[in-house]
Amino acid sequence: MAIDAATVRKVARLARIAEPEERIEALANELNGIMTWIEQLAEVDTEGCEPLTSVVAAGLPLRDDVVTMGGDPAKVTSNAPKSVGNFFVVPKVVE
């Protein structure tokens, strides 16, 4: 389904959206890209997937809330961009 400039003008008029004439062609291209993406989504095999209408009833996996003493500080700061000793080094934000 191709959307041309005339269709964009018609939809804009029906929606009472004032769209400048120089923007119509770009908008038609954007809408065609969206329609292409929707057509690609329609090709996805969803056989066996239950329709999801809401995430309210879905539960999250829970883990036990276990208090630890932090473990190995060297391991924790090993991912930091900069550290001194077992502390993170961050830029000064207050003068």
UniProtKB/TrEMBL annotation:
<comment type="similarity">
    <text>Belongs to the GatC family.</text>
</comment>
<keyword id="KW-0547">Nucleotide-binding</keyword>
<keyword id="KW-0648">Protein biosynthesis</keyword>
<comment type="function">
    <text>Allows the formation of correctly charged Asn-tRNA(Asn) or Gln-tRNA(Gln) through the transamidation of misacylated Asp-tRNA(Asn) or Glu-tRNA(Gln) in organisms which lack either or both of asparaginyl-tRNA or glutaminyl-tRNA synthetases. The reaction takes place in the presence of glutamine and ATP through an activated phospho-Asp-tRNA(Asn) or phospho-Glu-tRNA(Gln).</text>
</comment>
<protein>
    <recommendedName>
        <fullName>Aspartyl/glutamyl-tRNA(Asn/Gln) amidotransferase subunit C</fullName>
        <ecNumber>6.3.5.-</ecNumber>
    </recommendedName>
</protein>
<dbReference type="GO" id="GO:0016740">
    <property type="term" value="F:transferase activity"/>
</dbReference>
<dbReference type="Pfam" id="PF02686">
    <property type="entry name" value="GatC"/>
</dbReference>
<dbReference type="InterPro" id="IPR036113">
    <property type="entry name" value="Asp/Glu-ADT_sf_sub_c"/>
</dbReference>
<keyword id="KW-0067">ATP-binding</keyword>
<dbReference type="GO" id="GO:0006412">
    <property type="term" value="P:translation"/>
</dbReference>
<dbReference type="GO" id="GO:0070681">
    <property type="term" value="P:glutaminyl-tRNAGln biosynthesis via transamidation"/>
</dbReference>
<keyword id="KW-0436">Ligase</keyword>
<keyword id="KW-0808">Transferase</keyword>
<dbReference type="InterPro" id="IPR003837">
    <property type="entry name" value="GatC"/>
</dbReference>
<dbReference type="GO" id="GO:0006450">
    <property type="term" value="P:regulation of translational fidelity"/>
</dbReference>
<dbReference type="GO" id="GO:0005524">
    <property type="term" value="F:ATP binding"/>
</dbReference>
<dbReference type="GO" id="GO:0050566">
    <property type="term" value="F:asparaginyl-tRNA synthase (glutamine-hydrolyzing) activity"/>
</dbReference>
<comment type="subunit">
    <text>Heterotrimer of A, B and C subunits.</text>
</comment>
<dbReference type="GO" id="GO:0050567">
    <property type="term" value="F:glutaminyl-tRNA synthase (glutamine-hydrolyzing) activity"/>
</dbReference>
